[in-house]
Amino acid sequence: MQTQGFGLGFRFRPQGEAPGSAAFARQCVEAVLRPLSPEDLQGLSVYSGTDAVTQPALPVFIVVIMGGSLKQMRRLWKKVAAAACALCEYLPIIENNRLALLDGLSPERLADTI
User: Fold this and answer.
1) pTM
2) Within 10 A of 27 (CB to CB), how many other CB atoms are there?
3) 67 or 19, greater pLDDT
4) How far apart are CA 61 and CA 78, in angstroms?
5) Cβ–Cβ < 8 Å for 8, 62
């Protein structure tokens, strides 16, 4: 994945569902975006998809927010981490170096989710 600015990937482990199912994907995206305001997301890009790279034996669903400053991303990390209780135990949040290894994530239309 081509990273732009700083990025954060929030990793979710499916509970009985396939990591790529539409219902689970929607739940994950909403869990990340719910604690954020439209102002928090100003100028950022959001992507989502299955992360089969970070832990190949157990694919998970990942929501990536990218394109902010370090200060902005730290603020988002605090808001989302406090609200998203279904994050993976292993590497719940990944940053630029690991995000660069990901491939095939789809852009999210923010108007549909906030």
Assistant:
1) 0.84
2) 16
3) 67
4) 20
5) no
